[in-house]
Amino acid sequence: MASVRPFLGPGRLFLLLAIHMLAAFQFLYVVCHEDAASLLRRASETLKAKQYGEALGLLNAAIESDPKLSEAYLQRASVLRHLCRFEESEVNYKKFLDLKPGTSSAEKDLSQLLQAQSALDSAYSLFESNEYSKALDYIDKVVLVFSPGCLEAKFLKVKLLLGVKDYSSAITETGYILKEDENNLDALLLRGRAYYYLSDHDVASRHYHKGLRLDPEHAELKKAYFGLKNLLKKTKSAEDNAAKGKLRMAVEDFRAALALDPIHTAHNVHLHLGLCKVLVDLGRGKDAVDSCTEALEIDGELVEALFQRGKAKLITEDWEGAVEDLKSAAQKSPQDMNIREALRKAEKSLKLSKRKDWYKILGIPKTASVAEIKRAYKKLALQWHPDKNVDNSEEAEAQFREIAAAYEVLGDEDKRVRYDRGEDIDDMDTGMGGGGGGFNPFGAGGQQFTFHFEGGFPGGGFGGFNF
Q: Hey, what CATH topology would domain 263-354 get?
């Protein structure tokens, strides 16, 4: 970091102070040799040019020259109200009304002053309660209407704009202040914050740095400047570790960066996405879904976040959720082949998840041998044979169909290989009977079906079924 040093050297600073002091002496000399009426006229002219500081000096001199000059009190009250120096303004309005009681215009101005003062107090109270929009109404519709030169109200307005995340307006408002005083530290700080929350970090850093050149010990500027540097450093570390394949270190760095400023959404959306990618690569599907969801809550149109969340849902076997996210990503980026390939995989997994698990139906592992498949089939077919389940024949018949269908696939080597690969097999998922044209142990049209098992079933045959 470049060294932070005072903006002005001691020699130049002394010279500028001397020039300002000379100008002040000249001003006082002129003022002391003018009468109250001419001072009042000059004050009116400076007010038209919005030179409020000079106008106040002239009005102070006029009143000192003629304490009964009512118009000077009225003008001074107006200037002080304009600058929201409300208590001083009220004293001057009352002094004018003492000299010219019953003046309706002055009474109206005094009423407006009290309204502006009350509105500013209310705005501060609402600001402390985080009711930023209501506070902005008080500032815009009352305070700055009656006291348009109130710098205090202007700064509060900028803070409120930051509170409602209207960063562009905050930049505009601080620009007006800096046009009048380019070295205003509070304006530099607040404008830097607005750029920071827009993720325009280079411009934010320049504002903070300029303020620190003017005042190296300004606590808020130091906090903002070094906080930004730390955030960028931690972000770079996370991205570098991810690029180098140091995924667990990257996870720690991404989370540390996110903890530095949780409300910096313009920057954090990329941190959440980066974290999601790393978690996907680590196979931590649930955590990855959470991170990508955080990114999408900030920017719902972020295609990469939809893509990564879809991949994360594949890991967690949320097939429907994966298809939904990947379809949305494919619609937003139809030329991205990686998204299309992931979508095909998700759609295939969803389809497979809905087909019947023949291994589960026979109660055998996917590694079962041919002999194990036959044994399981014979056992279950005997258990659920309709002749042995007269009291629950409908359930037995349904179970018997399932068992026979499972054996039709798994008992055939070619069909089993295709099934294990996830390929479609004609009528494989239609069950048995019931309009699908699939394997029906009871035959079509009520015709009898005869099973022939090698070695037969223990205990002999059952009714019309020969074993």
A: 1.25.40
